[in-house]
Write a structure and sequence with these properties.
Elements lengths: L2 H62 L11
């Protein structure tokens, strides 16, 4: 193998490595994006649950007005 052939082979291998590195980088970015979306969706659901919980508590208080709270268990 001549010196020129060796250099060409090394450059080809480096190009392959660079291409793989770019592909891996893009996959990592896609995973990061998916994780951010999932976290946002989870946060959105948490807010919705908190709102529903508040409405239920408010409704419960309205229904129990005038009723002795000791007569009702687990509130």
């Amino acid at each position: 193998m001549t010196d020129a052939e060796f250099k060409k082979l090394v450059l080809e291998k480096l190009q392959d490595i660079e291409t793989r590195q770019d592909e891996i980088y893009n996959v990592v970015r896609a995973i990061e994006h998916a994780n951010n979306i999932a976290k946002s969706e989870l946060d959105k659901q948490s807010v919705r649950v908190a709102k529903i919980e508040g409405k239920l508590k408010q409704t419960g208080k309205s229904l129990l007005e005038g009723i002795d709270i000791e007569d009702v268990s687990n509130l």
